[in-house]
Amino acid sequence: MTDATKTLCPYCGVGCGLEVLPPARRGRPVQRDSQGFPLWQTRGDRNHPSSKGQVCVKGATVGEALNKDRLKHPMLRSSLEQPFQQVSWDEALTVLTDKIQTVRQQLGPEALCMYGSGQFQTEDYYIAQKLMKGCLGSNNFDANSRLCMASAVAGYLQSFGSDGPPCCYADLELTDCAFIIGSNTAECHPIVFNRLRKHHKKNRQVKLVVVDPRRTETAKDADLHLAIKPGSDITLLNGMAHLLLRWCKLDALFIEECTHGFTDYAAVVEQYPPEKVAQACGITVPELETATRYWAEAERVLSLWSMGLNQSAEGTAKVRTLINLHLMTGQVGKPGAGPFSLTGQPNAMGGREAGGLAHLLPGYRSVANPEHRQVLEQAWQLPAGSIAAAPGLDTWEMVRALERNQVGLLWVAATNPAVSLPDLERAQAALRRSPFTVYQDAYYPTETAAYAHLLLPAAQWGEKTGVMTNSERVVTLCPAFCPPAAEARPDWEIFAEVGRRLGFTEQFAFQSAAEVFTEFVQLTRGRVCDMTGLSHECLAPGPKQWPYPADDPSQAMDKRLYTDLRFPTPDGRARFASFHSRGLAEPPSPEFPFVLTTGRLYGHWHTQTRTGRIEKTRTMYAEPLLEMNPRDAQELRLQSGQWVEVRSRRGQVRVKLRVTQTIRRGTVFLPMHWGVLWATAAECNALTHPEVCPVSLEPELKACAVHITPVSDT
Ligand code: SF4
């Protein structure tokens, strides 16, 4: 008998199961945090299939952030120069709906923008799509997933015919070769890495290859670390394909029966002899050969990637080039094998299912597809033509639309773009131009709140019920275990009430999140992400993995996609695609000689909205440090602890230096977690540029060119 609530960790896409214990437990005094707030303690849920009781420091401490610095009431002000005044929900929503109607009438629906988040539960995402894309006729809903997983979505879609990671975490313990590229899994997805590390340590024949310009905590465990030059991923992968071809290590039958486009691809990779590739990537030929040999000799190869491939101006090409290796060796659709993207956020996957990007509709549908629009319009009881045919504004295009005064109302929810957008000074200037910004969040202050006219208090994890899907397609019900802070309300309820006030009473007549989810899953029928068999009730005893169709329970038993080696393309075959790398969008130059790469630290999450308020995680990393190779530091006469100014073509930051052997020469690293709330003049994205992948529209947050000089003080 326990009084714990089973739920999901609200941080990363690993999606670890948690048990939450109330502050007052039988016979014990009320537990309190360092500020005297009642403390909800967390521990790993041993029965959760994804994490089996394990949690990292973030999951173990998340309860401490439930009460601190909460936005408790709606707040309004007439201009950014004025202080906020507390208002009632009725007044706040009257102002908001009046603004929406005025903007729609005067500027058209395309002047309405919403920017959401992978922190949403699926119900929040779904209702936001119904409101924006269906009822209001604006496809301008994008989410911070655009900065995170958009390239993986596009890569899967183009190579396999549908989004959806084909693998599952059990594959971590079944693989013979794990090939990690562009992911510091040990720090950013710690429990996934724990599972892999254990398997690797226990089985000496299992190989671990890590491709990263930094010798990260992940790379330290590798049998082979390829410290390639930033941006040379495609060249490396083409070079490996070249060797596989030369060594005849192909799965000819798989290529013949299950794929399309191999001949053209083979002609391209012929142009990547080892010497040329090794030189371009900054590695040796034996290193390239060893990596390829590990892949070729393994019965089951699992590749894992994250932001290092996705956050690139050629992100989709990188993802597809990696998938090519799986296709040419038949390493997909079987246990222990396949390309596996690790999602950044706890419910970025649910966002994809619910259509939470500007070009998507619920159920892995596309706004550009007339049949898909018709399905949604009928389901939502809206007139034909309600959903616009063109994709809406993606994240960076919203910034550009603000610059052109084409946005009448910007609604930001559960994310902190005033820290996380690239080319930050420009992005912040654009936010200042917004005639009316609604900011809906659980915390106050945040950096983005400074750009808002209306603040709406959102209930957060633990205060609302909904579902989240993790990287391996496991859907977990996250029940409310405590009341919302003061007047805070679940995001989906806020969206639904706005919809009702705008006259869409039938469309938003939901009494509970369970009803919202039930409506949503009906829209997945027959799609790759079919979860028609799921409901809050069915998820209450424990998580389930999709596909979970109501009428074909056998599919629910299959933990992997494409095990029948048929893909959801018109001819059932996966697609090869060949690319030559264009290199970095902003390569180093005499004026800006270093490549800055950006990333995350083990104990922090995004812009610290939560982890900055937890003593343990905050004090693990007192400040951001710029990592530099000792030989570079020697040339510049710099040493650890010294203050430096890092300058790019767009801005500058001042940080302390950390001289370390773990980074290759010519490259420096800065974590992305600090905004002005936590450290002045240390915003990593003041340096980054907004060049995007032309397919996924994901910005190249991972690399830009910088100049470094010593400064005497802060
Ligand atoms: Fe939470 Fe991710 Fe840590 Fe698991 S690995 S406890 S999901 S932050």
* Average pLDDT score: 96
- Could you tell me the number of beta strands? 28
Distance between the termini: 55 Å
Strand order in the largest sheet: 5-4-18-17-16-6-7
Q: Which regions have little confidence, pLDDT < 50, spanning 5+ residues?
A: none
According to CATH, the fold-level topology of the largest domain is Rossmann fold
Q: In angstroms, what is the radius of gyration?
A: 24 Å
Strand content: 15-25%
Q: What ligands are attached or bound here? A: iron/sulfur cluster
CATH architecture of the largest domain: 3-Layer(aba) Sandwich
The general outline is globular
Number of domains: 4
Largest sheet: 7 strands, mixed
CATH class of the largest domain: Alpha Beta
Oligomeric state of the chains in view: single chain
Helix content: 25-40%
| Class inferred from helices and paired strands | alpha/beta
Organism: Halomicronema hongdechloris C2206
Protein name: Nitrate reductase
Cofactor: [4Fe-4S] cluster; Mo-bis(molybdopterin guanine dinucleotide)
EC number: 1.7.99.4
